[in-house]
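Annex B. Sample input.
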Amino acid sequence: MSIILGIDPGSRITGYGVIKQNGRQLIYLGSGCIRTSGKELPGRLKQIYAGVSEIITQFQPDEFAIEQVFMSKNADSALKLGQARGSAIVAAVNADLPVYEYAARLIKQAVTGSGAADKAQVQHMVMSMLKLPAKPQADAADALGAAICHANVNKTLVALAGKASGAKKGRYR
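Annex B, continued. Sample output.
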């Protein structure tokens, strides 16, 4: 059983989602957005760091999953996104959390079955998978998607380890 904090970074809005993985079961614990204010990027980065640190204190996650930076047409936007990611990652590392990074396409594929899914599809599937009463805000849904993607990777690794150990035991019987 582990608690996973997923982050969808942004310099203006950083989504977060927290789930508990209990075997194959995923349990929703919370989600929302860190909305930064001010014109200066350093101040917004400080708000992201403080917000993620507060979420870590509140939910006590065991693992941290974050969306990787994707290259966009606007280099300035990609740089700001990278800095927002850095602020969130530093908060996780300062709390001694292991950090896992996933491409946006992989997160969408884990949640919807298609790496080209749009935000509405991700929201709908996150709501369905976690049995939520309503669609979460888009950035929070993306963050929950990162956590779900990490949980799926964990399930696969555990299953593979079980098969490997089962095969090994079978050889020595």
